[in-house]
Design goal:
The chain has about 80 residues and is α+β, with helices and mostly antiparallel strands. It contains two helices and three strands. A three-stranded antiparallel sheet has the order 1-2-3, with no helix packed on it.
Length: about 80
Amino acid sequence: MFVIRRKAGESVRIGDEILVTVLEMSGSRVKLGFTAPADLVVVRSEVLQAREQNLAAAQSVPSRDSLRNWASTILQQNAPPE
């Protein structure tokens, strides 16, 4: 990880097309501004983590067939004796 200190109003350039500017600092928070090509996606890391967690949860949802099999088993176990 590359670490650099910047003050409010100072910038860092990444490559030829990305400019990151420190807009404001308040306590432990920093407001950053990004100047980049429109086709470049800039996303907060916690948004990506939440998306990954949602995708993982969606993949763990049981299929309809497995739910039907489970329900059938429960119904058979709870059926009154003949």
